[in-house]
Amino acid sequence: MNTSLFETLKKIISFLKNKYFKFAIVSVIYILWVIWLRNYWFLIGLIIIFDIYITEKVNWAFWKKRHGKNSKIIEWIDALIFAVIAVSIINIFLFQNYKIPTGSMEKTLLIGDHLFVSKVAFGPRMPNTPIAFPFAQHTLPLTTKTKSFVDWVQWPYKRLDGLRKIKNDDIVVFNFPEGDTVVIQNQAQSYYSIIRSKVNELKYRDLQYGNKIKDDKTYFAMARQYIWDNFDIVVRPVDKKDNYIKRCVAIPGDTLQIIHGKVYINSKPQKEYKNIQYRYFVETDGTRINPKMMEKLGIYREDIQQINADSYVLPLTAENAEKISKYAGIKSVIKSEKPAGDYSDYIFPHDSNYKWNEDNFGPLVIPKKGVTVQLSVNNISIYERIIDVYENNDLEIKDSTIYINGKPANSYTFKMDYYFMMGDNRHDSADSRFWGFVPEDHIVGSPVFIWLSLDKSKKFLSKVRWNRMLMGAAR
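^ that's the sequence the OP posted. Answer follows.
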């Protein structure tokens, strides 16, 4: 090698190792991060960076020697601490892994898909609970109800700038809005739906035994007391609620309506997605449906519901419904639908004034930040949880008068944007039709691609769905 070139490279390497150069690079990155945070108190951290690289007055990594050789154990501890800190920062500000646990997004996203979820897409949130056990969502490993966080330190909601805003039909990961209160013994069901089920049970019992029917408020208090007396209940802050993934069918300001299972936004039909599926009633001539044939269509064995010898209920896309209708032995394939006006009390807003069901719903205007709505005892059920829970007001209704923070109110101005989420598996998705709006402070991120997909029904390497590896997820 040319001597002058060797000397030049040697000088470059020496410069790159220079402590002032390292300090400058780290400081620039740190300042850019502080600007992103928009909290300039963090600039005090430059003093620590200066000491780490220049003055070396304090041994910030106190568990190891600054100079000299450390033992293997100390080196492993040091590497572990670095990894935990680095991955925690990445999970908070850049991306995290998310595994699809249920079939609510079939056939767009499958059970066993592992997703790379971008936090920077819609802007990462600062954590509400900054002191928490690493990599645990809400419960300590090997426990059933021990919190993985401390709730005596909580930060207010703050979202950093993102690359874009949520658009109609985006697939979004978010914290489950009704996940603030959880029944440990039945975490698959919303605490509030458990309460409603108990209310209905108490009403039915009084009817059955000829007892005097009480008002809804009394039944709710009785049901709540029963649940708290007989089960373990935990309360979780926003960032420690379970993560859900759905398609955002309506954004703030939109008017949503579902007619015969079809979603309409601002009176226009939603974009057609070939993977959206519904339940279908399939009638045969007595011929048994072959599970292997269903497997070829991507229908799990556990999703095949046999009503009797010649009737089945199957989750199907329009394409699969067309294919099955042409199979030998199939007499009819009819999409399931609840008729308009058939009130389902488990559907939001759980109010008989709104005789909605999962197939015929709305119209409903999605709340938008800064917009004022008129309130009455007839529509308060739509906005009650927004006002009382999501936006931290004290809401009461006395003698047909609405009180917000102790003052009579006939209007309310929203402090946040809200979204309406639905699963692509329209008849097997617990979504906004059941529990209402998703507040902006519950938004986690946008799935980018599938980095691993495992079929739980298969064994060994056959479990891997190779055709889904690195497939785009935000479709």
